[in-house]
Write a structure and sequence with these properties.
alpha/beta; Rossmann fold; 4-stranded parallel β-sheet; 38% helix; globular
Amino acid sequence: MEIKRDLYLNKLIERMNNGQTKIITGIRRCGKSYLLNNIFYRYLIQNEIKKDHIILIYFENIENEELLNYKKLYEYVKEKIVDNEMYYLFIDEVQKVDNFIAVLNSLRKFENLDIYVTGSNSNFVFRYCYWI
């Protein structure tokens, strides 16, 4: 059974392509990753976004360990952007990346890249997030 998260999905949809990094925070295991990597991902696919234009990076997976270096992460994402169409970047547990603020700021220069990240570390939440 899937728990509907229409309110949160609609908040993501409303903020699509606005030039800002979207940060999804919360306690561990509350559904942040599921919202982004399943529910929002399905929404993009259903709205004809190509799968190769959605860049998924999970830092719970050991195969992404080398991307914990912010310069390697930047180069990896840059290499994925091969045309002028819109791309969507999902980074799960972004606080694990060394100097993640620098890489996120650098990636914002790509006008055709919409950035979404999740984070659960309380230090991350209180240090880098603002609520409105």
